[in-house]
Give the backbone structure.
Amino acid sequence: MEGFTFTKPADEVAKWEPYLRDEEGCDIVIALTHMPAAKAAGEFTCSDLAETEAGAKLDGIFGGHAHSHQNLEVNGVKIMSAGWNGRGLAKMSFEYDKTAKAIVEITTTLYLQNDMNGDTILPNDPLVVNVEVKALIAEFAEAAGPLFRKWVGFFGKPILSREDQAVWATNAMWEYIVNETDEQYILLQNAGGIRDTSPYDRKATDAVTLGYLYTVLPFDNEIVLMDMKGSDLLADLLNVPDADLGSAKVVAGAYQKDGKWFMTGSDKEILDDDTIYKVAGNDFMFVVNATGLGGDSFNFTNGINPFYMGVPLRDAVIEVLLARAGFDEPQDPPYDLIPDEWYIPAIEFVTEKGLMDPASDLFWEPGTNVNRAIAFEALYRMSGSPAVEGDNFPDVSESDPFYKAALWAKATEVSEGEFGMFNGARNITRTELAAIFVRYLSKHTIDLQPTADLSGFADVGKIPQWAVEEGVFEKIVGTGIIKGYFPTELAPVAPATRAELAQMLMRLDEFYKLAYGKGEDDAA
């Protein structure tokens, strides 16, 4: 890898341990590593480091990677590791004689998760936030935020467990391989390489962000393709128990039934003979280490004509999700606007005109019920946000974001309020919106006549009596601003949604163009 030099841990210890003691005056030298603490086949561990000439001079070693709780002493060197994700705390205490310039005693204590809430862990020196480290993390988070908030598609299925996630990601990789090669491959992935992103409560319609994908697939391992005999595929990979692997296998393109393996799609049995199959994995699993096997003890050694696609697993998933969603590139938030849905033109219209805002930085919430405050705020903006004076509704304060909209609605009599109150937080029904639009148009010198025929709607009997007397729907349906909820239903008492309000505002603009040759925002 250009620009990087990879050295052996013992060589680095041999370089830095004497430098720290002799040049920096350090009394105690500890190695903080991400190597497994205990010995493990095929890996250089903290225990192996302690057995080297250089490693034996260390006063302590902290390990990681293996997700294990360890409190060891190897070759006179204390070695500890504390599990994973906060599931333990490894404490190494030194008694040091400054006069003799020597360590008198080293005490090690390993706390498991359930033992970490007592006063015995750090009774005198409670953990405090390192403000410099916190600021550094915040700096990187801010820089990466715009990229990580972009989204590439939808999950398409519920993700309720880590196993669900591993299968979902592996199937997306497999789909990429099939699309690129037009061949039927069998893909194997090591579940350990598909990282934990709990809690697992993702819905099929939830958006997949780049931040999520960089978390679940952080290693930039790339896809490797090869041919393999059926006998080798079964013996070396598919029939190997997960207990004999460093990580459970996840398979796409093949499935197991009654102890036999079959190809996905064709349902042909994978034969234990010289039949050649298309097989794929990743470079971590493929590259042989000291054990004679690949990473996590996967055995691809009998692969024929291996080919590195040069595509990281994460990028393959991104390409598939973009294609499924119909995106050309990752999208900025909000995450809940589905391409080609009926509301997209309307939301684009109200966004461009500044009539409505997303519900939050990340979600537009098209299906959420809309309240009175948002409805009147949209019409106020459509009128050009004019300056208005006078008394506001009693339940509206100057600190309310809709203060000016409520004042405008009262002053123009677009809203009479409810028993003298504005009730901005209450959801608004389709009938109420119809009445508001009629009043709004009246204030803009358009007196609508009750000319629409409602006989085709099966639920006209549900229209509130006051709206019947005012001919609200007969007036507004004729403009096309409000149409049937379904071809034969007005849904008069149903609460209006944010998407429906956006659609009505767009139709109001179209109505003005037909009536005056200009949009409502221009007419204001």
